[in-house]
Design goal:
There is one protein chain. It is built from ten helices and 17 strands. It has two domains: about 130 residues, NAD(P)-binding Rossmann-like Domain (Rossmann fold, 3-Layer(aba) Sandwich); about 250 residues, Dihydrodipicolinate Reductase, domain 2, CATH 3.30.360.10. The N and C termini lie far apart (about 45 Å). It is about 30% helix and about 25% strand. The protein has a nine-stranded mixed β-sheet with strand order 16-15-14-13-7-12-11-8-17. A six-stranded parallel β-sheet has the order 3-2-1-4-5-6, sandwiched between helices. The chain is globular, with a radius of gyration of 21 Å. By secondary structure, it is α/β, with parallel strands linked by helices. α1 crosses α9 and α4 runs parallel beside α5.
């Protein structure tokens, strides 16, 4: 008989929807030994109508307007943290101390010090934990990782990542409030570095190993914006754009770029790796396709004949591609929401068989450390070393 896990969602905004959908979908598509119940969700007391509407839509049994009440309830097994960044530390630490399984949205924290305290709390409590770097579970990105691990790229020389959007170009866009808290440094901690580049950094280190050094530059294009709740015009303290160079511990070089001022780009997340025996490229705006350039066989070192060399366009929908045997027939694609379901399935599988899924909060701390080093470099205008 399947074991019941009661879920407490702390937050009912955009990410709350993505996570709630994963809890609803994972059971029908993956063979798991758990029955998941959306037991409670938290939202602000001054937004109770939205909270209750969220609960009704997603079948959540109860609501709480005090997150502390939710994380200490005896009928909650899993606390899933989907609130803005400035709340992550307190919720995660309280949930760990209450003995709950902890899942947390990215970035882990406002800074490395907070992240260290969060990791210490979950490890002291011995509770299972996960950070939702969901892009690892895009089938094409998982295949990217698989091909690298199989040695088909060979010695890596270059890794490039770009994550661009355009939704804050208008100077009239306010900062803060429920919708635009990512523009408020007091709530978000940083701008594109923590919001977008955190994804790029996590994926890069997962695929290509640790980053050892960075040198960065940031820019805030609109220096002042009105606050969404008070109307008061105040300086903008987050980074609108960030670019950095990186050296990886394996000797390869990296370039990273992110901005919210790339007109025409809504959620462009790309990565490319160039190696001795081959190359790979991916673009989230074409998520079911992986580009692969085969130059030489990894076993024999034999070069591909010149008239057959070229970029291969792999349509990642076959049953032998990562995760795709759980969904539809070959040729049918899946989307953004499925990455959360795939992530949750891996976590629950590891929870059952004792092989904890990655990335956990300690992995999230590693990404936080790199993000902080990037911001430190941008302030100092110098290379910053990152501890192994």
């Amino acid at each position: 008989m399947a074991k019941t896990l009661n879920i407490g969602l702390v937050g009912c905004g955009f990410m709350g929807r993505a996570h709630a959908n994963a809890y609803r979908q994972v059971g029908p598509f993956f063979d798991l030994p758990y029955r998941l119940v959306l037991k409670a969700c938290y939202g602000r007391a001054d937004n109770r109508d939205k909270l209750e509407a969220f609960a009704a839509r997603w079948g959540v049994e109860s609501v709480e307007t005090d997150w502390r009440q939710l994380v200490t309830r005896d009928d909650i097994d899993v606390v899933d943290v989907c609130v803005p960044n400035h709340m992550h530390h307190d919720v995660v630490v309280a949930a760990a101390q209450a003995g709950k399984i902890v899942l947390c949205e990215k970035p882990l924290a406002m800074n490395t010090a907070e992240g260290e305290a969060m990791v210490a709390a979950v490890e002291k409590a011995g509770v299972a934990n996960l950070i939702w770097f969901n892009y690892r579970r895009v089938p094409a990105i998982a295949l990217f990782k698989q091909i690298v691990d199989e040695g088909r790229v060979g010695r890596p020389f270059h890794y490039r990542a770009v994550y661009n959007q355009d939704y804050t170009i208008d100077e009239s866009v306010p900062q803060g409030g429920r919708a635009l808290w990512r523009l408020d440094a007091k709530v978000a901690g940083s701008g594109v570095t923590g919001d977008l580049l955190a994804h790029s950094i996590d994926t890069a280190e997962w695929i290509n190993g640790p980053i050892s050094q960075v040198v960065a530059a940031t820019e805030t294009f609109v220096k002042e914006r009105p606050h969404a709740e008070t109307g008061e015009v105040a300086p903008v303290a987050i980074d609108d754009a960030c670019m950095f160079l990186a050296r990886f511990a394996n000797g390869s070089m990296g370039t990273f770029e992110s901005t919210r001022y790339a007109r025409g780009r809504k959620n462009r997340n790309t990565m490319e790796m160039n190696g001795e025996n081959g190359a790979l490229c991916f673009d989230l705006e074409d998520p079911h396709v992986l580009g692969f350039y085969r130059y030489a066989d990894p076993q024999t070192g034999r070069k591909v004949e010149d008239h057959l060399a070229g970029w291969q366009r792999i349509h990642v929908t076959n049953f032998d591609h990562p995760y795709m045997d759980k969904w539809w027939v070959p040729g049918c694609t899946i989307g953004y929401e499925h990455t959360f379901t795939n992530t949750l399935a891996d976590f629950l599988t590891g929870l059952h068989d004792g092989s904890p899924a990655q990335p956990n909060l300690r992995s999230g701390l590693r990404t936080q450390l790199v993000c902080d080093a990037v911001l430190e470099s941008a302030r100092a205008g110098a290379w910053v070393d990152i501890p192994a």
